[in-house]
Amino acid sequence: MSELIQQWLTMGGLSERLVLPVSAAIGFVLLLTICWISYYIAKHFVLKFVHKIVTKTSNEWDDLLISQKVFDRISWLIPAILLLALMPFFISENPQLVDALTIIAKIAIALQVARSLSALLNVANSLFQESSKEKYLPLNATIQLLKLAIYLVATILAISVLIDRSPIYLLSGLGALTAVLLLVFQDTIKGLVASIQISANKMVAPGDWIEMPQYGADGDVLEIALNTVKVQNWDNTVTTIPTYALISESFKNWRGMTSSGGRRIKRSISIDISSIHFCSDELLAKLQQFEFLNDYLNNKQNDISEFNQQKGIDDITNPNSRRLTNIGTFRAYIAAYLQQHPKVHNDMTCMVRQLKPTEVGVALELYFFSNDINWANYEGIQADIFDHLFAIAPLFELRIFQTPTGHDWQARA
Predict the structure, then answer these.
(1) Element (H, E) at 10
(2) pTM score
(3) Comparing 375 with 139, which gets the higher pLDDT?
(4) Residue 256, class by beta-carbon neighbours within 10 Å (0-12 exposed, 13-18 middle, 19+ buried)?
(5) Mapping DSSP to helix (H, G, I), strand (E, B) and coil, where does residue 191 land?
(6) Of 135-139, 144-148, 284-288, where does mean pLDDT reach its minimum?
(7) Could you give the CA distance from residue 117 to residue 146 in angstroms, rounded to a whole number?
(8) Cβ neighbours of residue 261 under 8 Å, at least 6 residues apart?
(9) Of 55, 188, 220, 381, which one has the fewest beta carbons inside 10 Å?
(10) CA distance 208 to 23
(11) Beta strand 252-253 with 238-242: parallel, antiparallel or unpaired?
(12) Is the confidence at residue 338, as pLDDT, over 90?
């Protein structure tokens, strides 16, 4: 083709001194035009045809080839390959230009092949995330490591083309730079080791709720990458944590709560000690009306009567007699109330215990699990239960302790 261009220019009466540079310029323009036309056809005709075929299939993996732009990246290879293949036909008389374009074409092919392989790895990762039930495999970190290796190889090939040396020559020189490479890629190496340990020990998986206060993280894990872990907090902010920190520092994983189907409620009610006393007959008669206390009161009163008869005690005011207390009866009521509550998990621990008396009264601690782990529903269940207990405590002649306020002093005045 270059000879034809030169003959045409010579026949046109162009000076022999200008034939070679002009023919090289014309060949260069024609070469670039052919490359651009090839890309335009591949981009706007071939790819559209391929997209139509892919969208009509029932498979999902081929849709990922489009969404990850695999075909788009491959289309960039066509002009680079044509540039490399057609240069001898169009600009063979200009070796400097041929060498320069050869270098550019080979570097472009190497980098574009790397980008295409990277897109294919994205497709593999997406297929794995959609189809696999095992979330603990460190595929995301592995794919990132493979991408790093692919781009590293492409970079070495590009440099070898640029300096006109064999890639083996560059690889042999990397051995002397081992310490430098370890320093540069130390975070990557630590991240890879961490991702393997996280996977092997099943410490964290995407979708887990974790807390890591030292990094301001409290929310769902979005992604476990080679170097970082993304956590979406409950205020919709995203916190980035170094992957290695998950094995070098402590964190809380709420996965057990989510998988168990029960969420713990542990909260106490402080009772004013001065309001604790034995139950009078009038109070017992009033408490007998509580449905949850019938069996408890009947059994307790029978046990107390039997004990007092064995001791020969007829007067309940006798200090040696056994009697029911209002706080003990209230504790029994709370336990019975929780056991029948529809939102309390019956297969998990449920108890009411009395804690050590302090300057703010004696606390009755409720320890149980709700059967709804949704955060909003969980808070509603907890509030409803304690609303009821705060309101019903005065019926047991108990006072809920709180620090005196201005209203209390005004009422006393």
Answers:
(1) helix 2-11
(2) 0.56
(3) 375
(4) exposed
(5) helix
(6) 135-139
(7) 10
(8) 345, 371, 373
(9) 55
(10) 66
(11) unpaired
(12) yes
